[in-house]
Give the backbone structure.
Amino acid sequence: MYNFSYSVEYEQQRLTGWKENAEGMAACIQGQEEIKQNASADDAPLGKVLDVQHHIETSDEASSKISSLDLERKTPRPFSSRSPCNAAVVTQDPLESITLFSIGVPADSMSLERSRSQSPDSPRKRQGETLEEQNPKDDYEWKRGMCPNHLVWTPSDTYTLANQSHYREIGDVERTVHWEDYKKDEEEGRPISYPIEKWHRSRLEDGTEGLWIGLPELYHNWYGNVTYKIIFGDFFKEFIASGKYKVYFLEVVQYSTKCMSRFLLTKENQKTTYSEYDWTKNGGPWRYANDKHEYSQTIRVMNACAEEGDRDNTLEFFFQVQEEDIPTLNALIRKEPAPHESANDEGVPHVCHKFKSAGRNKKCPSAWTKEQTRERMDQL
């Protein structure tokens, strides 16, 4: 499930932040050069500037670029391990030290979000660790494939995935099915669990049964015709906070433009296979903070490759619901028709998950509008 919400807003903020930060970088470096020329070594015990390992356009009109600086600093301050593309400028007075910028994240929005949540400066930084230890070099690859190109991996530290400024509140979660599957659910009086198959691109064993539940789809819903909507706060209270089900971090499925962060909800003890997830910690793809559940709109890629940058992120839960909990689940579900009329569009990706993905190219038998699906739901 891929959530497109906030992407336009985020891109506008990111580009604006890039230009402002680049111009600020040029001004700060010029000021630091003047300080260095006018001050002696005894007057500046903290040094000057951390290495800048990349080139930055200082303005739209500028034709020159800033290359690496090699100025010593006796007591360097740690910075986020999400990317080597960070720089800090330190004046002669340590109280006036500032972090200049972090590429891809506007400084103003970052500081605003952190002040609201009163969270540590960087959720990817671990207390007491050196810079080398902070770098997530031990991310583990489980599998990869094509159609489309994808990578399934788990982080060495789950709580280094998310950037602090990109959390948004979770309202509803949902499961969407095609019309034929909806009719079977109605006959059984419950959402029917289905087995994991290779095209799910998961490290779960093939044949493991459960329900995929994720964040809402916008505009066109490629998962099918009928959506089972659930308020996530109620779902969490009934099945997770109650202690009925344990939560394990399952995997990240990484595509060229987006990622899916996946969780396993089960009554079985899976500690030897998967990492139990703590939603109260910062830095994970899902957290509980400020009295609300939030997900990170972006997460880092495997091994935090700076040249690739962060990717858009959504959440998926594989729910191994047990028979005794079906009545509770049914009571939480609101059934609504979903827009699926574009399911048979040719040459367009992401139109029908069941019939036109993972190398399949069949005609969807229920490429209907919400209104057409509603008519059939009323007649069933």
User: Anything to note?
Assistant: Residues 244 and 267 are 7 Å apart (CA to CA).
